[in-house]
Amino acid sequence: xxxxxxxxxxxxxxxxxxxxxxxxxxxxxxxxxxxxxxxxxxxxxxxxxxxxxxxxxxxxxxxxxxxxxxxxxxxxxxxxxxxxxxxxxxxxxxxxxxxxxxxxxxxxxxxxxxxxxxxxxxxxxxxxxxxxxxxxxxxxxx
Length: 142
Fold this sequence. Notes:
Strand order of the largest sheet: 3-4-7-6
Order of helices and strands: HEEHEEEEEHE
Number of strands: 8
Shape: globular
Strand content: 15-25%
């Protein structure tokens, strides 16, 4: 029974490659199982919104592993976008131009409990930032 629960929980992270919704909430007809995309459950709504607004993403992480060992919260974009003001990011986040990513790195020497509290706060800030981005993203092609 334990493995079934664990498998079900892991399945929540897989989304349809077309609509980006969890496979049990997919609005598409059919898709090959090998094309499913892993998006951490706490990032799914943000990634769907970004892509619907025209900000194409190619990777993200909610720092679901031990944040005391160097993981971070991030969203990587396919392009730079005119509408992303890198000087107006959520508190604690920074823009990595080379990776085209917004990133939060945890402070060093924190406990896992402190990391979990920070994670909840930073995911909320990131979600609010995503909500505030305008629709109709304009890619910058270098």
